[in-house]
Write a structure and sequence with these properties.
Keywords: Membrane, Transmembrane, Transmembrane helix. It comes from Streptomyces yaizuensis. It holds the Pfam family GntP_permease. With about 475 residues, the protein is mostly helical. It has one domain. Helix content is about 75%, strand content about 0%. The chain has 20 helices and two strands. The radius of gyration is 23 Å and the shape is globular. It starts with a helix and ends with a helix.
Length: about 475
C-alpha cells in the first residue's frame, strides 16, 4: 500500500485534471469527459496494481464495474430526477411560476423590489432550473424596473442570485438530488438534505442580494426600450393557477417526505409510528412516491381545454432537460464505482489517521475547493455537484464525514452542502446561466463580471462560512 497509495492518488488527480481540461479547454460534454476520465483512472489503477505486485487486482473487470456503477446510481435516483424535472417544466408552462412570483411580490411589497426579486427567484428555482426561471421572470423584472425606476442591473442580479441559491442547494432541483444520492444518502435521508439546505441557501441568497444592492447600483444596462411587459407576458396564459395549486406540487412532496422520515424515526427498539400505518407513511414519504404525487398535482394545473398534445410536449421537454443530468449522474456513478474498486480510500485514511487536521469540518473545505475548481473550469453547477459528490463518496469515512446524529446522516448532509457552496463559485463566460442573466438584463460582459460573477463568488464563500459554522456544531 505504501507504494501503490501515492500512485493511485496521483492517478486520481490526473483523472480530475483530465475532466477539467476536456470540459474547459475542449468544450467536451461532461458525460463523455467523465467516462473518458473513468477509463483513464481505471487503466492507471490496474497498471499501478501490476507495477507494485499487489496481492489483488485493482479494478477487476473495468467495463463491468463501469456498467454496474452507471446503472446502480440511476436505479436509486433516476426517477427522482425525472419527476422533479417534469414538475418544474409543467409549473413553467402553465404559468404557475408566474403565480408564485406574484405571490412573493404581494407579500414583500413593491417598496422593496430587489428583495422581492431575490425571494421570488429563490421560490421559483426550487422546482425550476435557474436558467428557465430567469427567462420566465425576466418580463416581471423589467416591468418592475420601469414602475419603480430601479436599476435593471440591481434587480437582475438580485433575481439571478436568488434563483442560483436554491438551484445549487435545495431538492427537488436535480443537482442536489443527484449529489445526495452519490454520497450515499438513501431515500429516507433526502428530507434532511432539504431541511438543512433551506437555511444555507437563504443565507446565500441574502449575500447575493446585499451584493446587488451595494455593488451594482452604478452599473448600466443596455436593455432596449421596446420590451414585453409582465402583463403582456401573463396574457400568454389562458388562466393562471391559484397560489395553493401552484404551491402544491412543491410543498406536498416535501411534507410527505418529512412525514415519512418522522414515522421511520427510531424509538423504543422500533420506529416512531409502527405497524401497517407506519409502513404506509414511510412508503408514501419515499422520494419517488412523493414526487410522483407532485407530478400528478402539477398535471392538475392544466387548463380544462388544454389539448393532450401540449401536455405530451411539455413532458417531453422535461425529459429532454433531465437527460443530460441523468447521463452525467450515471457517469459519475461509474467513476465512483471504479474508485471504490481500488484501495485509495484506505490509503487516504492511513494518511489522515486519528486527530488529523484533514477531517470533519476541515474536510468540508476540501470538498468545497474541489467543487469550486470543477465549477469554475467547466461552467456547470450541476456537473460540479455530481462529479465532486462522486469523488467524495468513497472517501467520506476517511474524511470523518460518515457520522450520524440519531437517524440523520449528518456527515453526508454536510458534505452535500459544502459541495453545493463550491458549485456556486463562480458563474462566468463558460456557464450558460451567465449568458442568460447578462442578455436578459442588458449587461455587457464586463458588467456581468462585476455583477453576476462577483455575486456568485460572494454567495459561495458566504455559504461556505455558514456551512463551516454549522459543521462545528453538528459534526
Amino acid at each position: 500500500m505504501s507504494t501503490a497509495g501515492p500512485a493511485l492518488l496521483a492517478a486520481l488527480a490526473a483523472s480530475i485534471a483530465l475532466i477539467i481540461v476536456l470540459c474547459g479547454r475542449f468544450r467536451l460534454h461532461p458525460f463523455l469527459a467523465i467516462v473518458l476520465a473513468t477509463y483513464a483512472f481505471g487503466l492507471l489503477a490496474m497498471g499501478v496494481g501490476v507495477a507494485t505486485d499487489a496481492d489483488r487486482k485493482f479494478v477487476d473487470n473495468l467495463a463491468g464495474t463501469i456498467a454496474e456503477g452507471f446503472g446502480s446510481i440511476l436505479a436509486s435516483i433516476g426517477l427522482v430526477i425525472l419527476f422533479g424535472t417534469i414538475i418544474g417544466k409543467v409549473l413553467e408552462r402553465t404559468g404557475a411560476a408566474v403565480t408564485l412570483a406574484e405571490g412573493v411580490l404581494k407579500v414583500v411589497g413593491k417598496r422593496h423590489p430587489a428583495l422581492a426579486m431575490s425571494l421570488m427567484g429563490w421560490v421559483v428555482s426550487v422546482p425550476v432550473f435557474c436558467d428557465s426561471g430567469y427567462v420566465v421572470l425576466s418580463p416581471l423584472q423589467r416591468s418592475i424596473a420601469r414602475k419603480t425606476g430601479k436599476n435593471p442591473v440591481v434587480l437582475g442580479t438580485a433575481l439571478a442570485t436568488g434563483l442560483y441559491a436554491s438551484h445549487t442547494f435545495v431538492p427537488p432541483t436535480p443537482g442536489p438530488i443527484a449529489a445526495a444520492g452519490n454520497v450515499g444518502i438513501g431515500s429516507d435521508g433526502l428530507i434532511w438534505v432539504i431541511l438543512f439546505s433551506i437555511p444555507v441557501s437563504l443565507v446565500a441568497a441574502a449575500a447575493g442580494l446585499v451584493w446587488a444592492l451595494r455593488r451594482t447600483g452604478d452599473l448600466e444596462s443596455r436593455l432596449p426600450d421596446a420590451q414585453q411587459t409582465f402583463e403582456e407576458y401573463k396574457a400568454q396564459f389562458e388562466r393562471l393557477p391559484s397560489m395553493g395549486s401552484a404551491l402544491a406540487p412543491i410543498i406536498v412532496p416535501i411534507v410527505l417526505m418529512a412525514v415519512g422520515s418522522v414515522a421511520a424515526f427510531p424509538a423504543d427498539g422500533g420506529t416512531l409510528v409502527g405497524g401497517a400505518f407506519g409502513a404506509f407513511l414511510t412508503d408514501l414519504g419515499n422520494p419517488v412516491n412523493a414526487l410522483l404525487i407532485g407530478v400528478l398535482l402539477a398535471l392538475a394545473l392544466l387548463p380544462p381545454k388544454r389539448d393532450a398534445q401540449a401536455l405530451t410536449t411539455w413532458v417531453a421537454e422535461g425529459l429532454v432537460d433531465a437527460a443530460p443530468i441523468l447521463v452525467i449522474t450515471g457517469a459519475g456513478g461509474a467513476f465512483g464505482a471504479v474508485i471504490k474498486g481500488t484501495p485509495i480510500a484506505d490509503y487516504i485514511a492511513s494518511l489522515i489517521g486519528d486527530g488529523s487536521s484533514v477531517s470533519g469540518v476541515t474536510a468540508l473545505l476540501v470538498l468545497f475547493g474541489l467543487a469550486a475548481l470543477l465549477k469554475t473550469a467547466q461552467g456547470s453547477s450541476t456537473a460540479a455537484l455530481i462529479i465532486t459528490s462522486t469523488l467524495a463518496q468513497p472517501l467520506l469515512p476517511a474524511l470523518g464525514l460518515d457520522g450520524t446524529m440519531g437517524s440523520i446522516p449528518i456527515g453526508q448532509v454536510m458534505a452535500v452542502l459544502a459541495i453545493g457552496a463550491g458549485a456556486m463559485v463562480v458563474s462566468h463566460v463558460n456557464d450558460s446561466y451567465f449568458w442568460v442573466v447578462s442578455q436578459f438584463s442588458g449587461m455587457d460582459v464586463k458588467t456581468a463580471y462585476r455583477a453576476q460573477t462577483a455575486a456568485t463568488l460572494v454567495q459561495g464563500l458566504t455559504a461556505l462560512a455558514f456551512v463551516l459554522l454549522l459543521g462545528l456544531v453538528v459534526l
